[in-house]
Structure formats: structure tokens, C-alpha cells
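Help needed: design a sequence for this.
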């Protein structure tokens, strides 16, 4: 990584580079993804299991695709009891945080004869996609399932690809069971998304699909949006550290690398107004990289999407943060709380030297499913709100409607909708006729 002086041009170049990682930029895969979706939609289980055999090398059928109770029990035997204890601590923290997000139905009667309100209800069935292979993250199971449970979703279906032996990663199964998943299917890829979106003879259709995945999964979610709801089209992970001379460069370097190790397309960005700090962070990054297991992934990530940005002052640095709108933002300044008041765009914000980003990934409680690729300008973290729907409730008595129906009719006629006007007027025609007769 080299130091780049911050200016409008450098920010624009970074934004262009980061956006190239977006699933929306991979048009060359859309045709093949759509073909998979169409085949599963039309062919059901037959197409679903054919694609699983072709892509995953596993022969499944309706009797073997569902994870059995015996498989779950086997997973518990494989998982270290210390890890199980951590998973349960994490669940408690995630549940406690998301309980604070719950909304209640409400009704008001501010005017005689009028009751207005909002009814909050949970989605009936949600599908959670969980990656396998290199990106097998039990923590993501918790982050997607627990908000749905807190919201009151009664049926949570999970799909995750098995290994070459037809087994699902044991910690993933244990996390799913502990979090409260209803059923787990050994399916992955675009074909799993299609099955959840449209249903097959074996896989039930869901109302919403959430969870991360590779480019094929992301494009499949994009393609089925509208038939079902989705959480977002997530891109590779990213972290940005806003620091000044008060920071510990060793800590900052370690935090940046913690995201770079996710994926060769992950992004780690440092922005500071102190050149000495910038150089020290680079030195520590080089030092740590040599010692870390995923060093090749880290090197590729830093080479393509790693940046060290030198600002003239903190005002310029903060403006850069808001322009990039990072998924994860660490603020390590003299007064991080003051800096926080000036941040408008970020998915999750970590304050101070000891709020390392991984604490948010695993244990703190706030959701780690976050907007990427600059979408933190208009999207939020996954929450209980993603698993509910809100219905407006309107109740007028005859006397309450009498006082306003002419206004409604006038508005409707201004829009040329005489049927709307008639709909309210017809309720008082008899009264008007009676008045004329007397």
C-alpha cells in the first residue's frame, strides 16, 4: 500500500474502483443465473437436484436434502464445547440488542368517530442463505436468524451447500439449531435461491430471502426480487479507519487486515491527517501480513482495494468518509464521539482503540449484515424491521365521514376520478334526499 494525498480526484477514483466489485457490475453472469432460475422454477426438484449434482458434485433427492436430526446431533458432538459457549453468549447479546428494535401496533382516536393506526405483523416464512466452503460463517447464521425470531417469524428455512461428502459444516449446523432455524436444506448457489423464491415439491416458497453469498447467489437474489423480498445485494466486505495522531498504528493495522483477509476483493482503507501515522500503519500491516494464515488473500486485497489516504485536515478526512460510505467505520481520534456527530454515511461505527471491528462481527450484539459499496448512504444494517410488515388501519364512523366527504370528493374530481368521488358521496345521497323531501 502506498500513501495517496486526498483530493476530489482521488476520492472519485476510489469510488470507481470500489463500485467495480458490486454484483451489479457482473453482467456476464446474469444470463446463466437467469437460466438456472428459470429451470428450477419450471422443473422443481428435478432441476434443483440436477444443478446440485453438476455444481456441488452431490447426489441428493427429496429424502436426503433435508438435514436430519441425527446430522445435527453429530454436529454437536464435533463442535468444541468452548465454541458452543461462545455461540450462546453471542446469541444472548444479539437477541438483547434486537429486542430493543421491536415495534408494536398502535391506534389513535384523536378525532371523534375516527380511529387510525398501524398494525405490525411478522413475515410468515423467511429463507436464510448461508455460504459454505471458504466463506462458511456461523456468525452470519446468528445475525440473519435471530432478528427474524425476535420479529416473530414462525418459519425460518435455511439453505447451505454441503461439502463433497454431503455434510454441512458442523458449527453452521449448531449455530442454526441454537438460533432457532425451523429446517435446514443442503443446497447452495443460484439454484437454492430459485427454490426459495418459487418453491419446489420439497422446498417451500418463502416471503423473503436474506443472507450473503457469492456472485451467483447475489445475482440470483437480484433476479428474484419482486417475486419475493430480499435483504440487499451485498458486495465484498470493506472497512475504513478514520484516525489521527492519537491512535495506536499497530491496532489500526491489525483491524484493517481483519477485513482484508475475508476476500481478495475486500477493501481496507485508512484515512488520516498525519503522515507519520500513515507510514506506521503500513509498516505494521507488512509485519502482520507475513504472520497471518490468509496472507495471499490479504496481499491481493490490499494490492487491488487497499488505500492509505492522507488528508490535509480532519474536515477533509471526514468528508472522504461520508463520500465513500463504508460498510465498517472505525473512528480512532482524540474525541471519537465528537467525530461521530459529523459522520452521515456508514453501516456500523466502532469508536475508540478498543472497539475492534471483529467485536461487532461476533459478540457485541448489533447486526453485522451491513450495506456495502457505498449503499450506506441509503441502506441500514439488517434489523427486526426487515422481518415485519406494517398495515395501516383506518376506521371512520358515519358522522366522522360526513364532516370530510365533500373534501374527499373534491380532491378526487380534481384528479378526474369520479368513481372515487361517487364512492364517498353515495353514502350520503339518501340523507340528502330525505332533507329535500322535508
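Sure. Designed sequence:
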Amino acid at each position: 500500500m502506498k500513501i495517496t494525498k486526498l483530493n476530489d480526484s482521488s476520492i472519485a477514483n476510489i469510488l470507481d474502483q470500489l463500485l467495480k466489485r458490486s454484483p451489479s457490475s457482473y453482467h456476464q453472469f446474469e444470463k446463466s443465473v437467469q437460466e438456472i432460475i428459470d429451470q428450477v422454477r419450471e422443473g422443481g426438484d428435478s432441476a434443483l437436484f440436477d444443478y446440485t449434482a453438476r455444481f456441488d458434485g452431490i447426489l441428493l433427492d427429496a429424502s436426503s436434502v433435508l438435514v436430519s436430526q441425527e446430522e445435527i446431533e453429530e454436529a454437536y458432538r464435533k463442535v468444541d464445547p468452548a465454541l458452543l459457549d461462545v455461540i450462546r453468549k453471542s446469541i444472548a447479546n444479539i437477541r438483547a440488542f434486537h429486542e430493543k428494535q421491536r415495534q408494536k401496533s398502535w391506534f389513535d382516536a384523536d378525532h371523534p368517530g375516527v380511529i387510525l393506526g398501524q398494525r405490525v405483523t411478522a413475515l410468515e416464512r423467511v429463507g436464510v442463505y448461508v455460504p459454505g466452503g471458504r466463506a462458511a460463517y456461523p456468525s452470519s447464521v446468528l445475525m440473519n436468524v435471530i432478528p427474524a425470531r425476535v420479529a416473530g417469524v414462525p418459519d425460518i428455512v435455511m439453505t447451505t451447500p454441503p461439502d463433497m461428502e454431503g455434510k454441512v459444516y458442523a458449527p453452521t449446523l449448531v449455530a442454526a439449531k441454537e438460533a432457532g432455524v425451523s429446517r435446514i436444506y443442503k443446497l447452495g448457489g443460484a439454484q437454492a435461491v430459485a427454490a426459495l423464491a418459487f418453491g419446489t415439491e420439497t422446498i417451500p416458497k418463502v416471503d423473503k430471502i436474506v443472507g450473503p453469498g457469492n456472485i451467483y447467489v447475489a445475482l440470483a437474489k437480484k433476479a428474484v426480487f419482486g417475486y419475493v423480498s430480499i435483504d440487499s445485494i451485498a458486495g465484498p466486505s470493506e472497512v475504513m479507519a478514520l484516525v489521527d495522531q492519537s491512535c495506536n498504528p499497530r491496532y489500526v493495522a491489525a483491524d484493517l487486515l481483519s477485513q482484508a483477509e475475508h476476500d481478495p476483493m475486500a477493501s481496507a482503507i485508512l484515512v488520516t491527517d498525519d503522515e507519520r501515522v500513515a507510514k506506521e500503519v503500513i509498516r505494521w500491516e507488512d509485519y502482520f501480513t507475513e504472520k497471518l494464515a490468509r496472507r495471499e488473500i490479504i496481499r491481493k486485497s490490499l494490492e487491488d482495494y487497499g488505500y492509505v489516504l492522507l488528508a490535509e485536515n480532519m474536515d477533509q478526512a471526514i468528508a472522504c468518509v461520508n463520500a465513500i460510505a463504508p460498510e465498517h467505520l472505525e473512528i480512532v481520534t482524540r474525541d471519537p464521539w465528537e467525530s461521530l456527530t459529523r459522520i452521515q454515511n456508514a453501516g456500523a461505527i466502532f469508536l475508540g482503540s478498543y472497539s475492534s471491528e471483529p467485536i461487532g462481527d461476533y459478540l457485541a450484539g448489533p447486526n453485522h449484515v451491513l450495506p456495502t459499496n457505498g449503499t450506506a448512504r441509503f441502506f441500514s444494517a439488517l434489523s427486526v424491521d426487515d422481518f415485519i410488515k406494517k398495515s395501516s388501519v383506518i376506521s371512520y364512523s358515519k358522522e366522522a365521514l360526513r364532516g370530510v366527504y365533500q373534501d374527499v370528493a373534491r380532491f378526487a374530481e380534481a384528479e378526474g376520478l369520479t368513481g372515487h368521488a361517487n364512492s364517498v358521496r353515495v353514502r350520503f345521497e339518501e340523507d340528502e334526499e330525505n332533507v329535500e323531501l322535508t
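The chain has a mean pLDDT of 94.
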